[in-house]
Batch of 4 targets.
Target 1
Amino acid sequence: MEIKVVRQIMEWNENCHAELQTYLNEKKILMINIMGSPGTGKTTFIIKLIESLREEYNIGVIEADIAGKIDAEKIANMGIPVVQLNTDGACHIEALAIKNMLPEFDLDKLDIMIIENVGNLVCPAEFDIGEDLKLAILSIPEGDDKVEKYPLMFTRADGLILSKYDMKTYFDFDEDRVINNALNVNKDIKIFRVNSNKGEGIDDVREWIKAKMKI
Amino acid sequence: MEIKVVRQIMEWNENCHAELQTYLNEKKILMINIMGSPGTGKTTFIIKLIESLREEYNIGVIEADIAGKIDAEKIANMGIPVVQLNTDGACHIEALAIKNMLPEFDLDKLDIMIIENVGNLVCPAEFDIGEDLKLAILSIPEGDDKVEKYPLMFTRADGLILSKYDMKTYFDFDEDRVINNALNVNKDIKIFRVNSNKGEGIDDVREWIKAKMKI
C-alpha cells in the first residue's frame, strides 16, 4: 500500500516533467536545474552565470528553499525576474511545483529558466522537474568522497561543477578521485572547475550552455 | 489518504524512538545523533571525539550512508565497533533502522553510541531515532545563512558545532549572524567552535558530553 503511493507520485511526476518539457520546447526556453549540498555555492554560481549570459539571453529564476527569500532577493537585486518557492520543510521540488510557478513569468520573453533546487545532495536528484539540463555542484571543502557516497546525483547530472575551486590550496582534495568516480557512474558527464567569487571558469559553462540553447 | 500514511509513519517512528530511549536508559548508553550537510566534517569530528573519549568510555558507532562503507572503514581502523547502514537512496534514517542495528553490538559493554546520520541538512532533522543528544554540524565554508534557510535542524539540535573553524580566514562568514539566528529558534542550543583536523575545540564538546553520561 505504502509502496503503491510512492510509485504513483513518481509516475505523476514523470508525466508532469514530460508535459513541461514539451511546453518549454514550444516556448524555446532552456531549463537548467541546479542542485547540490547546502552551502556548495549554488546561488553565487547562478549570479555569475546570469552575469555572463544576460547580454545575449533573457533569463528567469525560480529559487527553491525550505524557508526564507534570501537567495531570491539577491537575484531580484540584479533586475532578473525571480520567484521564491518555499517548500515549508520539503527536501526537494517536484515538477508540479515548477508547473505552478511558470505563470508568474512572461514566458514569451524568456530564453533560459534557471531553477535553484533545495540544498540537498540526495532527494532532488530523484525528481525530474521539466529541465533540459541538470547541473550538480560540488565544492572543494565538501571533500573528494561525495560521488561514492551520494551516487545518484552524479549519475543523473549532465554537468558537474567543482566549485570553490580556489580552495584546493587549503583542503586535501583528490580531484582525480572525484572525476574518475563521476565518469565511472556517468561517462558523459561534463566537468567544470569554477571559482564563482572571482568568476573563474564561468566562461566554459556559458559556452556549454550556449550550445544547448533552443533559439 | 496520502497524508494519513505520512502521519502514521511519523507516529510509528515516535513510538519506536520512545521504546529505544527506554531501552538505552536501562543499558545506561548515551546515544548521540550527528547530523549535517554532506562534507560538513561529520566523520572527522566523530573520529576526534572518539579519540578524546575512548580512554574513559566504551563507544560504538553506526555509520549511515546512501551507499558505500568509506566512513565505517575509518572507524573500524580505530578498533571501534562499527556497523555501516546503507540506506539505498533514502535521505535519512528512522528509529526502526537503529533498533534493527543494535543487536550487532555488545550493548552491555557500551557507554556511548554515536550515530552518523546521512549527510543532509533537511530530512534527518525530522526523525527522532532514540537519541539523547542531537548535534548539528555546520562548516564555515557552507556559509552564514544556513540557519535561516534550513531552520528545523537548528531548532531541534541540542548542540551546534561550527566546524572547519580555521577556515574563517578564507571565507566571508558572519559568525554573529549564525549564532543569533540559532539562538533565536532554539535558545538552549549549545554552540561549539571546532577544527577537527587539529582537534581544536573537541575538549569543550567532550566535557559537555561527559556531563550528560548515564554512568
Target 2
Amino acid sequence: MTVATALAQYNALQSKLSAYNHAMSLIFYDGATTAPKKTADNRAHALSVLSEESYRLTTCEETVSLLEFLDAHREELSQKDRRSVELSLKDIRELQKIPMEEFVAYQELLVKADDVWHDAKENNDFASFCPILEEIFATTVRFATYCAPEMHPYNYCLGKYEDGLTMEQCDAFFAALRQKIVPLIKRITRAQQLDNACLHGHFDVSSQEKFARALMRVMGIDEGRCGLGTTEHPFTTSIGSHRDVRITTNYSEEDFSSSMYSVIHEGGHALYDMNSADDLAYTNLDGGVSMGIHESQSRFYENLLGRSEAFVAHIYPDVVACFPEQMKGYTAQDLYRAVNRVEPSLIRVEADEVTYCLHVMVRYELEKRAVSGELAVRDLPTEWNRLYREYLGVEVPDDTHGVLQDSHWSGGGIGYFPSYALGSAYGAQLLAKMKQSVDVDACLHAGDFAPINDWNREHIWKYGCLIKPGELLESALGEPFDPTYYTDYLEKKYSELYSL
Amino acid sequence: MTVATALAQYNALQSKLSAYNHAMSLIFYDGATTAPKKTADNRAHALSVLSEESYRLTTCEETVSLLEFLDAHREELSQKDRRSVELSLKDIRELQKIPMEEFVAYQELLVKADDVWHDAKENNDFASFCPILEEIFATTVRFATYCAPEMHPYNYCLGKYEDGLTMEQCDAFFAALRQKIVPLIKRITRAQQLDNACLHGHFDVSSQEKFARALMRVMGIDEGRCGLGTTEHPFTTSIGSHRDVRITTNYSEEDFSSSMYSVIHEGGHALYDMNSADDLAYTNLDGGVSMGIHESQSRFYENLLGRSEAFVAHIYPDVVACFPEQMKGYTAQDLYRAVNRVEPSLIRVEADEVTYCLHVMVRYELEKRAVSGELAVRDLPTEWNRLYREYLGVEVPDDTHGVLQDSHWSGGGIGYFPSYALGSAYGAQLLAKMKQSVDVDACLHAGDFAPINDWNREHIWKYGCLIKPGELLESALGEPFDPTYYTDYLEKKYSELYSL
C-alpha cells in the first residue's frame, strides 16, 4: 500500500461515513420536527441498523489497519489529513472499548428517551422518565469507565464536549464567576427594575416566523443552506455536511423574545457549522471543533451582539413591522432595556445574561454528583429544586419547569452544560479582540454583519476541526483564556443599565 | 446451512434493507418538503452512498446464494417466506443486469432531476430540464434493455408498475374507455353546465390545513402514524415500514377543492400502505403490491367515495366551519355539483372524473413513443400541446401548465401513468363488489368509514405484497376485471348530474 492509495481509501471511507451521518441526523431531525407522534419505534429500528453499520465501518479491522498505516506515515501527510487521521484514531480507540451491542443498544435507547422525555415534560411526570434516565446515566458512567478507566467518569464526560476540561477547572471557573456574579445580582435586585412589558402580549406564530426569517437574513445566514424548524427544545444540526444545516426554535405566543433569542442563538451555531472551509465537507473535520467553542459563537450572537444597544436599535423597526399593535408606544430603548432585564427565573433558555450561569451551575453540580454516584437519579428533582432555591432564590413549581426542561440528558449529553458558561466567557474575550480591528457597534447599528462574520470566519469558522479547541481559541484571542473579560463585561453593561 | 438459519439470515438482511429504505425515503421526503433550497447536491451525495450500499447488500454473492438456497427449499417455506424470496430473487436478477455504477449514477441523477424540474416548472423553462429528461428516458430504455432484452422496453416499463401489463392491453383498455367517454363528454358539453363558483375565492392556507386534518380523521387515518406535508406535487411515501407514512398536498389559495381532493387521494394511498398486516413490517412484502392496485385505492377514496353525494353531504358542515364566509349561500347540493363539474382542462390532478383518463392517455401516448424512439424528448412539449388540443380541445398556454406539470418523469416514473386509469377502473368494480355486503352510502352519510376500511383491509390492504396483483384483484372482485363497471358508473352518475 502506498500513502496515496491509503489516503484515497480513507477519503472514500470518510465520505461513506458522512452519508450515514446524513441519514442519522435527518432521522433525528425529522423525529423532533415533522414525524407523526407514534413513530419513534420505527425510527429506532432504522437508527439501530444505521448506527451499527456506521460503527462497523468505523471500527472494522480494515479501517484500523488503514489508520495505523497512515499514522505510521504521518510525516508524509498534509496537516489536514494528519489531523483527520489523528481524530479518527482517537474515536476508534474509544469505540473499540465499547462492545458493539452496547453501543447500538444505547443509540436505540436515546431515540426512545427523546420520546419519553417529551411526554414526561408535557405531563409533568418525572417518574415515567426516571427509569430511562437512570439507564442513560448508568450507560454514560459505564462507557466512561470502558474508555478512560484511569479518569473520573465525569471528567471524561466533560472532555467529550471540551477537550481536556476537568472538574477542577470547572470548579475554579464557576467559583470565579460566582464571586463576581452573585454580588452583581444582589446590587441589581436592590436597584430600580427594568420594565419588560413590551415583550408580553399575544404574538401569533406566523408573524414570529416571519420575524425569525428576518433575523436570519440580518445575521447573514444563507437560507438556501439553512432551514428553520419548530421543536420543543431549539437545536442546530448539520445534515451530512456543512452544506445543509437546520436550526429550530419554539414559539411562545406570550413572549416573542423567547423565539427571537433562540433563533439568534441557534443562528450562531449555524453560522459556525456552515462556514467550515468547503474542502472539509464529507470529512471528520467538518463543523465545529468543540461545544465550548460552539457555544462561544451561539452566545456571542445571542447576547454580546443580539442584546446590545446597537443591534436592538437596528432590529427595532423589524419588530415594529411584525408586531405593530403590541409595540405601540414602545421605543427602541424600551426594547433594549426589556431584553436585558435581570430576574432570577426558572427556565435556562429564557434566562438573562447575568443569572444564566447560575442555571448552568445547578446542572453542573447535579451531573457531577449523579455521575459520581453521590446522587441517585430519582432524587434529581428534589435536588434540582433545592439548588434553584439556593442559587437563584426561586421556587420550582413542577418538574416541567424544573428538571424536565432541557433535552440534553434525554439526548445523552451529560457533561455538555458547562460549555454554555465557558462559551459565554470565551465570547466576551473574543469580542474584545474583534473590536481591535472591527467597529462592531457601527456594524450592528447598520445591520451589516459581514465584517463581524468575516472576522469569525477567518479566525474560527473556516478551520472546522483542523486545530484543537484550546489552540484555536488562543490563536484567535492572541492570549490565554481569561474569564475576567466576561465578568467585566457583565459588570459594565449591567451597571449602566441599572445605574448601579 | 439449515432452512431455519438461512431464514434468520434472510430476515436480518430484510430488516437491514428496510433501514436503508427508511433513510432514502426520508431524504427524498425531506428534499420535497423541508430541506433548504440549495442542498440538492448534498442529498445526492448521501443518496448515492446509501443506494450503493443497499444495492451491494441486495446483489452480493452472499445474498444470491442465500436466496438460491431458500428457493431450492421453497416447498419447506411458509407462503409468506416463499413469496418474499420469490420477489427478492426477481429483483436481484434484474438488478444484476444493471452495472452498479450506472444504477448509482441514476439515483444521483434523479435527485438532481427533482430539483431541476422544480425550477423549470416554476420558470416555465422546459429547455433547462430537457437534457436531464433526455438522460432519464435514455437510462430507462437502457435499463429495460439490460433487464428484459426480449421485451419492448415500454412493456418493461409498464410491467414495473402493474405486473404483466402490455401496450396491447393498454391500447385495448384505453380504446374501450375512449369509446364510452368521448361521446359522454360530447353529451355533457351540450347540456346545462354545473356551477362551481363555491369552490372559488380566497382560502387561507391555515384553514385549508385544518380542513385537511379533518378529512384525514373522517377517513379513519391514524394521524399518529401518518404525517401531512406540503409539496409542489402531492405524494405518499412510507418511511421504512407501514408504521410511518407521510402524505403531502399543495394548497391553492384560489380553490380549496384542489388540496381537498389531493388529501383524500393521498389518504387512500396512505390507508393502503398503513394497513399491511403488522408482521410484514421490515420485509419486502410491506406496503402496496402494484401501482394499479394502489391507484385503485387512492382514486376510490378521492372519487367513488369523495365525490359522492353522500360524502359531500357529510363533509359539508366541516367545509362551512373552515370557510364560513366563502360558503355563504351555498348548499351541500351546490357543493356536490361543483366538485363534479366536467370541463376539459389543463391540469391532470385537478381534472374531473370524466376527462381524467384523457389526461392519462396523452401521457401514455407520449411515453410510448418516446421510449420507442419515435419521439425526441425535446419534442415532448409540442406533441403534448397537440394532443391536449386533439383529446381535450384545450390550448396549453405554457409548459408549466403542460408538459412540466407532473413530477413522474423527473422521478423516473415512466410507465406509471396508465396505473391511474386502470386504478380508476379497478375501483369502480371494487365498489360494486363492496356494496354487496356494505351499505356504503349509509356509511358515507354518517361519516363512518370503518366498515368501508374494514372491507378494504380484509380484501386488499392486509395482504401487502403477499399475493400477485392480478390474483389479489380477482379474489377481491370474485370475477375477472371488467372496465365496463367503470364506464357504466361514469355514464350513470353524470347522466343524472347533467340530466342527460
Target 3
Amino acid sequence: MGALEQQMFDMGKAARAAAIILGQSPRALKDRALLQAACAIRRDAEIILIANDQDVRAAKERGSSGAMLDRLVLNPARLESIAQGLELVAGLDDPVGQVSAHWQRPNGLDFTRIRVPLGVIGIIFESRPNVTVDAGALCLKSGNAAILRGGSEARATNDALYACLVTGLVDAGLPASAIQLVPTDDRAAVGAMLAGLDGAIDVIVPRGGKSLVARVQAEARVPVLAHLDGNCHVYVHSAADPAQAMAITLNAKLRRTGVCGAAETVLFDMGFDAGPVIRALLDQGCAVRGCSVIQKLDARVTAAKDTDWDTEFLDAIIAAKLVGNLDEAIAHISTHGSHHTDAIVTQDHAAAERFLREVDSAIVLHNASTQFADGAEFGFGAEIGIATGRLHARGPVGLEQLTTFKYQVRGTGQVRP
Amino acid sequence: MGALEQQMFDMGKAARAAAIILGQSPRALKDRALLQAACAIRRDAEIILIANDQDVRAAKERGSSGAMLDRLVLNPARLESIAQGLELVAGLDDPVGQVSAHWQRPNGLDFTRIRVPLGVIGIIFESRPNVTVDAGALCLKSGNAAILRGGSEARATNDALYACLVTGLVDAGLPASAIQLVPTDDRAAVGAMLAGLDGAIDVIVPRGGKSLVARVQAEARVPVLAHLDGNCHVYVHSAADPAQAMAITLNAKLRRTGVCGAAETVLFDMGFDAGPVIRALLDQGCAVRGCSVIQKLDARVTAAKDTDWDTEFLDAIIAAKLVGNLDEAIAHISTHGSHHTDAIVTQDHAAAERFLREVDSAIVLHNASTQFADGAEFGFGAEIGIATGRLHARGPVGLEQLTTFKYQVRGTGQVRP
C-alpha cells in the first residue's frame, strides 16, 4: 500500500472510531462544538482572511476567471455569514434519537424506529471554502463523522477554517477526527474516497460543478447523494393567472440564474398568451431560445436547437416552447427533465393535481417559483445539497436526510413459534 | 450492441414505460392483477407441477444436493401457499400516494411528502421458484415494474409461474411488461442488469446465497438493497431471567437455522450461569464452539476458532463466548457482527436501553428472539428481503421500503425574494 493510500485508510479508521462516539454524543456537546467553532472563526478572522488572500492571489496568478474567483474569495461579511451558519445549525433540532415510528404487535412486541447517524460521510467539493464549515457542521450535528476533500485552489483558506472546527470539537471534548480535512491535493485521494476507504465511508456527497458530480457518480463504489442536473421547468397552463405566470416565470429564471432550482425551460400552453412573459424576459436581459411559434412573438427570440431542451444553462438564457396541452407538457418534462424541480402555473385545480401527481420529480410545485427548491425554504434550516437519485433522500438533503434508522424491539421473553 | 444486450435494453425500456403506467394505476387494478394471478396458479397447478418435475429431474441428473433440491421442488401445498401469498399482498395497504409528512411555511406554501414507486426493480435470484411470484407481487403492489432473473435450474417452473402473473396483469388491463422474466439463462444478462440497462433499472434486489449477493454488491452500478451476512448475536446479561435466556437462545438458534435472523453467536455475561443453556443447546443437537471458559462447562463443547466469531453458520452450530460485561458484549458485536439483528436478554432496564442504543444494527431486540427479524413479524405483511446497508431501507424491505417520495408544493403565486 502506498503512503497516500495508507494515510487515507488511517483517516477512514479514525473517522469510523469518531463516528461511534459522535453517534452517542448528546446534543449539548455537538452544539457546543458548533458554537465554539463560530467563536474561533470570529476570533481568527484576520488569519483566515490572510490565508484566503494568499489563495486568491495564487488563483489570479494562474489566470482564474471572475466566477471562480468570486466563489473563492472571502471578506468579513462572508466570514460572519459562515460563523452565523454554524450558530444556525446549532439551533436546529437534533435528528438523532428522534422516533419516526412506534407500534405494537399482537404478541406484545413493541417496535420503535429511531433515527441514527449514517456514519461516515465523505464530502468532495471545489473552490467554495464555506463548504468546509457548512458541510462539517451539518455532518457533526447529525452525528456523522466527516472526511472533507476541498479544492486545492482553496487550500490555505480551508486549512484556516478547518482549524476553527477542530477548536470547537476539542473544546466540547469531542474527537478532533470527527471532522477531518484531507491534507493532500493529490487527486488520488479522491479516488481512494470514492472506493470507500475499505468500508470506512458510508456515503459520498459531491459539492460542485457538473464534471465533479459526474466523476463521483461514475466512479463511486459507495452510495452518492447528489444531483447531476437541475433542468427545471415552468409550465404555464391555459388557465394560468397572467400576473402569476409573469411573476413566477421571471422569478424562476432570473432571481438567481446559477442555482440548481433555476428554471431552464418554460412551456406555454397554446391557450395562454405567451407574448407578455416572453417580452418581459427579453426586457430583463434574458436570452430566449424559442420553438417556431415562440420565435414569432418577438424578433429578439432566437431559434432553439434540439439540445437546448436538455440544457441546464445556469445563466440568463431560457428555452421556450409551445405545447398543445397538459399531456404534452408532462411528456416534455418526462423526456427532457432531470427529476429535480418542476412547476405548473394554473387556476385549474384538476390540472394542477394531475401535474403534481404525474410529474416524476423530487419537487413539484403549483403556482410557486422553482427557486423554492432549497432546504431552508422547506423549513429544514440548512441543507448539504439536493438529491435527484431515487433512493434514501430525494430533494433537499438536510439533517434528517443525513440520518438512517434502526428498529428497537422491546419484548418480555417472546420467542417465535 | 450484441443481440443479448439489445434484448436486455429493450426489456429495460419496456419496464420503464410500464413503470410510468403502474405508478399512476389505482389500487383496485393492482389488486385485481394479483388476485387473478392467484386464480391462474390454482387453475394451472397441474401445468406448473409438471414443469417443476421437469426441473427437479434435470437437477437430479446433474447430481444436485438435498438442500438445493428442496429449494427447487414444488408440491400442491407449496403452490397453494404461493397463491395465498398473492392474496395476502392484495390485502395489504397500497403505499403509493400515502402522505408521510405535511406542513406549511410562513409564506403560505403548503408542503406534502407523498410516497411514489421507486420505478424499475431488478430481482436476481437462485433456485427458489416462489421468488418469481413473491417478488413480482411486491413490486406490482408498490407500483414498481420488475425485471426478474431466476436461476436456470428453475427455468421451466419460473416460466409456468410467470405465465400466471402475466394472466393477472392482462386481466386487469395493466401492461404485461410490468413484470418481465429474463428469457435467457446466459449469465451476461445478469451483468447487463447490474450495469443498470442504461438507466432503466433503479435498484437491484438479490435473493439467494452469499456468493450471489457478494457478486451483486461488487459489480452493481445501481443501488442494491440486500444483506450479505446475518451474523446475529444473543447476549445473555448477568441480570437475565434464566428461563428467558434459555427459551430465547434456543429459539434464536434452532427454530430455523437457515434464516438470516438465526443467532450464530451467544455471548454470556460472566455473572450468568451459562451451563444450563449450553447443555440444552447440545442436547437439542446443536454443536457448540466455545471459548476456553465455555469449553469447561461440557465435554461436548469444541474449541472455537477465531473465524467462528465471524461466521454465519446457517446450521445447528453456535459459537459461545464469555464476556466480562456489557461493554465487552457491545465491542464484540461491533467487531464481529454484520449490523443485521442482535438481542440482549436481561431484567436490567438500563443495560437493555444501553444495548438498544449503542449496538449499531438494523434490528436490536430486548428479551425477544432474533428470529423475529422478518417483515411479517414486524407487521409489514410481506418482505422482499432484509437490508443491512445504511441508506434508504434498513431491516425488512416491505412495500413501504419499495417506495421513495416526492414533495408536492402548493402555492398561491409565491416567488422567492
Target 4
Amino acid sequence: MPIINLDHISSNPLMPEVKEAMIAAIAADYHNPSSQHRAGEAAAAVLEQSRETVAALIHAANPKEVVFTSGGTESVNHAVKGVMLANTKKGRHVVISNIEHNAVIRSVRRLKGLGYQVTSLDVDAKGCVNPADVAAAITDETILVSIMHSNNETGTIQPIEEIAEITRKKKVIFHTDAVDSVGVVPIDVQSLGVDLLSFAANSFYGPTGVGGLYIRQGTNVWPLLDGGTQENNKRAGAENLIGIIGMAKAAEIARQKLPERMAYLKRLKSRLINALPGYIDDYIINTPENSLPNLVSLSLRYIEGESVMLMLDDEGMAVSTRSACASGSLRASHVLLSIGLSHADAQGTLVITLGIDNTEADIDAFLKALQKVVKTLRDISPLYQKA
Amino acid sequence: MPIINLDHISSNPLMPEVKEAMIAAIAADYHNPSSQHRAGEAAAAVLEQSRETVAALIHAANPKEVVFTSGGTESVNHAVKGVMLANTKKGRHVVISNIEHNAVIRSVRRLKGLGYQVTSLDVDAKGCVNPADVAAAITDETILVSIMHSNNETGTIQPIEEIAEITRKKKVIFHTDAVDSVGVVPIDVQSLGVDLLSFAANSFYGPTGVGGLYIRQGTNVWPLLDGGTQENNKRAGAENLIGIIGMAKAAEIARQKLPERMAYLKRLKSRLINALPGYIDDYIINTPENSLPNLVSLSLRYIEGESVMLMLDDEGMAVSTRSACASGSLRASHVLLSIGLSHADAQGTLVITLGIDNTEADIDAFLKALQKVVKTLRDISPLYQKA
C-alpha cells in the first residue's frame, strides 16, 4: 500500500534534482576539501559553491557566515552552548520560551547543570511570545535570547523582528531556531535582525543529517566541535560533502519556488481546515493565522492522538502526534500544555504537515479516514460517552 | 591527468559497493526513523541493521553501545567533553598525550578554559606513550584518559591494552581515538578494554561526514547534541541515514577483507620503504615498526614538505604534509616535534598514506617523481648547499 505522507515535518521526500545531485556527488567521489593538492582544491571549490547557494536562501551578507552542520539539532546546540560558554565572563543568563524545541530546552538544561541561569517565557494561546516579556526578562547578566522562528507543533510564527530590535538595543545575542521555517517561508537574516539562525536541509526537501548555522560576523561563539580548521575555524571535522551538495541543490530550488510552494501548501491547508466540520466535531485547531503554510495542529477531544495515528497508519496515512524528535516520550507535549490545552486535549493532538508532493485527493482521503477513525475511537471512549 | 592518491588519510575513495548502497538509499528515500508509523518503522529497521553491522566491526557486545555521529571529530568531542562534563562532581582532571589529534587537544583546551586540569604526556622517539607515565599521571581527581589508538602523522600504534589495564584498576574512564585504525587494523573493544572509542567511516572506504562512538554500557557521559531521544538518548538529531547506510556497507566489507587489505598495504609500504635509498638520501623515516600498514612518514632534510607536496601535485600525485585537518596552519606539526624532530626536519615531512586502490606501479611512479622533486628543491636549497 502506498503511504500518504502527512508527516512532512518528520521527513520531507528528496526532490528528484536533489537525488540527482547527490548521486553525481557520489560518482565524483571528491577528495578532502582541506587537502592542499589539486584533488583537495576541487572538493573545496564545490564546498564553497554550495555555501554560496545556501547563504543566498537566507540572505546572508557573506557566505562565510554559514557553517555547515550535521542538522538542525547540532546547529541549535552549537548556537546555544557556544554562545553561553564563549561569553561567561559577561554573564550566565539565557532567555528562551516555553515552547522551544527540545534541542534548545535540553541544551539550556545542560547549561543549568553547569551553573547558568535560564528564564523561560510563557506564550499566549496562539503560541506567541510577547516581545515585551523578552525585554523584561533581559538583565545585565543576559548573554543570549533564543526564540524559535516557527513552532514545530502549532506552526506559530514568532515576532522575531520585534524581539531582535530589543536584543540589539540591549546588546544581547539573539538566536532563532528556524529549522521548520527556512525553505518553507521567506527567511532573510538581514530583515529578521538575528545574530544566529539554525536550519536543516530536510525542511526544504534536502537530505536529513545536514543543516547549517548562520553566525553573523563578529558574534562571539565557541565551536561545538573542536579540532581542525574546517568551516572557517567554526566547526571542525571532515565535511559531509555529499549531503552538503544535496542541501545546496535543495536550497537553490527552494529559493526559486518559494512563493509557488507557499501558495500551493496554503491552498491544501485551507481545504483541510475548511472541510473538517463536514467530517468531525469536538476538535480544536491549535494553529493560528500567522503560521507555517504546511502545518495543522488538530486536537481531537475525548480520544488519544497516539491511537488515531496508529489507526491512520493502518489506513496508509502517516501523521505525527507531536514532533518526531520527541517520540518515545509518553508525556503530553510541553508546547500544547503551554498554549493552554488540557492534558487530555494535548494527548488527543495530531500534527498534520503537508508537502509539495501532497494533492487535494490526499486531503480528501485523509478527511474520510479521519472521520472513520475518530468515530471508531469515540464509540469506545468512556470520556466521550460521558460528555 | 589522473591523480595518484597517496593521501588516503585525508580521503579514501568510496568502495563501489558503498556507492551502490548509498544510491539505493537515496532511491528508497526513507522516512524519519523516530516516527512511529510504518514509514518510520521501515527507516528504523534499516538504521538498527546498520548499527549491528558497524558494531560487529569493532566487536561491541551490544549494538546499542554504538552511537552514530557526523564523523571522527564529533565522536572525539562527544567522548572527551561528554565524559568530563558528566563527571565533574568526581573531579576535573584529564590525561592525554602530546601527539593527540587536534580534536582531542582542542577539546581539552576548551575544558581548561572552564577550569578543568589537563596533563599531556610525552612520547618517545617512536611516538609511543609509556603506560607507566599514564599510571603516574592519574590522580584522585582524574576522570578520563584519552590516548589515540594510532597516530595520523607517524602511524604509531599505542599500547592501548596496557593503558586500559591501568585505567580499569584506577577506575578512570578510558577513551581512544581510533579514527585512523578502525577498518584498517583489527579493533576489538573487548580485548582493548577501552570504555569509549571514536571512529570514522571514511577510514574504511565509507563516506565522509559520518562516524561512530563506541560507549561501553554503564559509562557516564553527557550527549554532545542535546534534543530528541535518537540514538538511545545519546545523540539527538535526525540521522544521516544515507551516510549511515554507506558506513554499514563499508564496515561489512572491511570486516571481511581486513587481513587481505592489511597484507596488501604492508607489501606496498615495504616496497616504498625498501626502495627509497635507491632514489633519495638524507631522509628520516618517522614511522616505527608497530604502525598502521598504510602510512609512511618521511622527513626530507633541507627542504620544505609544502614545496615537495606542491611539486608532486604538478606530477599528478597527492600526498600530505601533515594531517589534512591541520592544514591551513603554518606551524610545524606538534606530533613531529614531540617525537624529537627538529623544526626544520618537521617542516620537511611528507605523510604518504596508501590505499587498496594503489598499485605497485603507483609506488614506483612516486619514487621517480620524488627523486626528481627532491633534486630540484635541494639544488636551490641554501641549507642543503651548506650541509
